[in-house]
Amino acid sequence: QVQLVESGGGLVQAGGSLRLSCAVSGRIFGSSRMGWFRQAPGKEREFVAALTWSTTNTYYTDSVKGRFTISRDNARNTVYLQMNSLKPEDTAVYYCAVAPRGIGFDSWGQGTQVTVSS
Fold this sequence. Notes:
Blueprint: E1 3-7, E2 10-13, E3 18-25, E4 33-39, E5 46-52, E6 58-60, E7 68-73, E8 78-83, E9 92-99, E10 107-108, E11 112-117
Parallel strand pairs: 2-11
Antiparallel strand pairs: 1-3, 3-8, 4-5, 4-9, 5-6, 7-8, 9-10, 9-11
């Protein structure tokens, strides 16, 4: 069982930056896919970004392309989400998730709150 612990959320003004971290413990495979999702009040959880653990492939939802960057540190077993040029509409609880075999995100962190003020 993979365990995920997010950190790095907070309150920031529009245009500012935050970096989220997701510490990963447990068994991860080269084909595992790590993802960031978010859920705003009254809305469904949505995909934000993902990467495959052993490759350079990254994926983003259109609304964050050019502003957010997902990356990993294999030595630290940590996945990051660098968020720049933040907008009020980025306000949400951000969750880290893993798809151990590359499909089906089945382990989730507890979430970290990101609030962007206008």
